[in-house]
């Protein structure tokens, strides 16, 4: 510490002879770059201390009408960081003790001074002053963090009675800091079960992380919070508790609003999906009505077309029932079903469209049932949409639809292949986006609905297509 940069030392003494003696001792110190100045009176010394002119002060106890203790106390009142060593004529234990209590770094008797003792004193004083400065800086840093934190930070005893709190605690509990020191955190916990659980955890002296609880402030407002505490060993018979309370009330409100928005959005999507489903049988009815013969002509054909109208009216009624069921909580009900059964039901729902367009259907299924966990009604909707899309992509009287199930190493795949007009390459990346459609009167919800339903079954869907050659929709399900 004594080597390197110059260290400025002031000797505050009204006796010049004593100053010269001390200066000579200091100059005998080898290898030190020390500059020693004389301050002969109390006022000039006080001024230099205020201006932080020196790194170290040796102050005589007797300074005319004042004493070195008076100077020391004034220096401490100015938050002086530089070390001050008190000098006395002869060792006086009472003065020495008072000097140390007043903030002196050390004390020395003039009659016992020598170069060695002064070197040791200077080294100790400068090292201690540096340590105290670093300690003060750390304390200020953590004090600023403590006071500036938006989270409630507190220190409490074993019963959670507050012993120190930051400003955020006053805002959380609705009480001034001084008032909080008469309360325990448990007094503000709303639920008795939470109080008991928290008390049980504290009994174990185990650190607590993100314990969720409800705090009732002084005005009766309830706040959702997360509590974290740690136990600090100290000299008391018990550990003190350091805690942080994070107010998550606004976060919880935002989460609830987001969940509600998601529910509304989900309902809206499902309503649109069901509306799209209604259009399919309506199209069948329209096609059937357009082909109805004049009364009295071809009664057999008329009977078949009226049957199509009736079946599709029944289907519309069933879809509307599902639409009304949306007022109830929507849940997927998974059970084991053979894929063959689900695909056959989807083809049955599209029978009228298949017959009206004179589409040839070829099925390629494994001999044994391929069972998956599925919500049958929802998955049937998805496959029905894929089948109808395929039918609409093919030319009337020339359509060929191939539906197959293939085993995979970790699951099964379903493919629905048509020989229709195919899909332009630039449309493929957006094919499953809601409201994207290339159909003249389409709404772009059918394939988006398929994608959503298949994803909810932990499946994947992709398409392979060539313009004027047809498309193949491939759905993968894991085992």
- What low-confidence regions span 5 or more consecutive residues with pLDDT below 50? 326-330
Provide the gyration radius in Å. Answer: 44 Å
Q: What's the number of helices? A: 14
Number of domains: 4
Major sheet size, sense and barrel closure: 5 strands, parallel
Distance between the termini: 74 Å
CATH superfamily of the largest domain: Histidine kinase-like ATPase, C-terminal domain
**CATH 2nd-level architecture of the largest domain:** 2-Layer Sandwich
Helix content: 40-55%
- Let me know the number of strands: 19
Mean pLDDT: 84
Tell me the strand percentage band: 15-25%
CATH class label of the largest domain: Alpha Beta
Order of the strands making up the biggest sheet: 2-1-3-6-7
Named CATH topology of the largest domain = Heat Shock Protein 90
Structural class: alpha/beta
Helix and strand arrangement:
Elements: E1 7-12, H1 16-27, E2 34-39, H2 42-50, E3 56-60, E4 62-63, E5 66-67, H3 68-77, E6 84-88, H4 93-102, E7 106-109, H5 115-148, E8 152-156, E9 162-165, H6 167-173, H7 177-180, H8 192-203, E10 208-216, E11 222-232, E12 240-247, H9 249-290, H10 299-324, E13 335-338, H11 339-349, H12 351-356, E14 360-364, E15 371-374, H13 376-393, E16 400-408, E17 411-417, H14 446-456, E18 459-466, E19 470-478
Parallel strand pairs: 1-2, 1-3, 3-6, 6-7, 14-16
Antiparallel strand pairs: 4-5, 8-9, 8-12, 10-11, 11-12, 13-15, 16-17, 17-19, 18-19
Helix pairs in contact: 1-5, 2-3, 3-4, 9-10, 11-13, 13-14
């Amino acid at each position: 510490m004594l080597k390197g940069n110059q260290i400025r030392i002031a000797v505050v003494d009204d006796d010049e002879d004593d100053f010269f003696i001390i200066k000579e001792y200091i100059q005998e110190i080898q290898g030190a770059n020390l500059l020693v100045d004389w301050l002969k009176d109390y006022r000039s010394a006080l001024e230099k201390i205020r201006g932080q002119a020196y790194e170290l002060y040796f102050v005589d106890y007797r300074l005319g009408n004042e004493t070195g203790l008076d100077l020391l106390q004034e220096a401490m009142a100015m938050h002086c960081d530089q070390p001050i060593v008190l000098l006395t004529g002869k060792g006086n234990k009472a003065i020495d003790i008072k000097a140390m209590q007043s903030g002196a770094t050390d004390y020395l008797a003039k009659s016992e001074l020598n170069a060695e003792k002064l070197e040791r004193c200077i080294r100790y004083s400068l090292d201690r002053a540096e340590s105290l400065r670093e300690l003060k800086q750390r304390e200020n840093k953590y004090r600023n963090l403590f006071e500036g934190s938006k989270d409630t930070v507190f220190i409490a005893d074993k019963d959670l009675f507050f012993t120190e709190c930051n400003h955020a605690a006053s805002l959380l509990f609705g009480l001034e800091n001084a008032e909080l020191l008469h309360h325990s955190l448990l007094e503000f916990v709303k639920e008795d079960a939470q109080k008991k659980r928290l008390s049980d955890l504290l009994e174990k002296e185990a650190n607590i992380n993100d314990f969720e609880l409800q705090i009732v402030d002084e005005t009766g407002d309830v706040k959702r919070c997360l509590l974290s505490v740690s136990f600090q060993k100290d000299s008391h018979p018990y550990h003190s508790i350091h805690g942080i309370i994070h107010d998550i009330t606004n976060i919880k409100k935002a989460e609830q609003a987001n969940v509600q928005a998601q529910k509304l959005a989900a309902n809206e999507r499902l309503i649109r999906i069901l509306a799209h489903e209604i259009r399919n049988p309506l199209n069948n009815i329209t096609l059937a009505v357009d082909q109805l013969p004049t009364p009295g002509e071809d009664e057999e054909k008329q009977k078949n077309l009226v049957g199509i109208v009736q079946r599709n009216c029944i289907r519309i009624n069933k879809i509307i029932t599902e639409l009304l069921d949306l007022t109830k909580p929507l849940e997927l009900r998974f059970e084991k079903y053979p894929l063959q059964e689900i695909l056959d039901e989807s083809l049955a729902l599209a029978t009228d469209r298949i017959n009206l367009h004179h589409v040839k259907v070829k099925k390629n299924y494994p001999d044994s049932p391929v069972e998956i966990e599925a919500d049958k009604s929802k998955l049937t909707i998805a496959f029905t949409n894929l089948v109808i899309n395929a039918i609409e992509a093919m030319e009337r009287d020339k359509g060929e639809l191939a539906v197959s199930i293939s085993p995979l190493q970790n699951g099964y795949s379903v493919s629905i292949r048509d020989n229709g007009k195919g899909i332009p390459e630039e449309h493929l990346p957006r094919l499953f986006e809601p409201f994207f459609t290339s159909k003249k009167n389409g709404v772009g919800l059918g394939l988006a609905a398929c994608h959503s339903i298949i994803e909810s079954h932990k499946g994947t869907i992709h398409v392979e297509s060539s313009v004027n050659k047809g498309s193949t929709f491939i759905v993968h399900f894991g085992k």
